[in-house]
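Hey, sorry to bother you again with one of my protein questions. I've been puzzling over a protein and I'd love to understand its fold better. Take your time with it, there's no hurry, and the full record follows here:
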Amino acid sequence: MCPKALRKLMSVMWGGAGFAYLSPAMRQEIRFAGFGGQGIISAGRITGRAAVLHDGKHAVLFQSYGPEARGGACSAEVVVANRPVDYPRVGVPDAAVVMSQEAYEKFGRDIKPGGLLLLDKDLVEHEPRDDVRVVEVPATRIAEELGRRIVANVVMLGALAALWPAISKDAMLAAILGAVPPHTRDLNKKAFEAGVKYVEENVHVS
């Protein structure tokens, strides 16, 4: 392991309380990627908490920072399942949330065929894709319109919850509100709802 890289494995195995939204033996994998300061690790952590604490599933998070905590590349991988996770690492994920061009170049083509690729529209350019479902959300722009660029990751979580059936919207919002400081809950709720609204108004959701 590179001494300049911080890698932390967090396993949250308390789920399975009868809230299953996944079919038997279902396992879904997602990767969040961007640069330090975008809340990439927080997005992964919140997604895991949403699955475990609010949807009654099991989840495992693996996170990786680059050499610099802020500005360096970082990623978070989450496995969500309806039974204890026997292997914690993501192979080729079912979905990816990518918030920087560097992250797209590194991870954007590593998704299962037919999977979901969620991009920050103003920060990531991509070639035409027919192997995965690409959804572009102007998350950073929406966050800036709300007054705080830092909640762009929450906008993306709202969009993700509207598109990815592994986590319910109610669970994701509850996890967000439980993870942020009380005085920022209203802003984060608006950011989440803005992400959901953007998808509902601009993307066909089957």
Notes: Helices lie at 40-54, 101-107, 139-145, 152-163, 169-179, 185-202. DSSP finds six helices and seven strands in the chain.
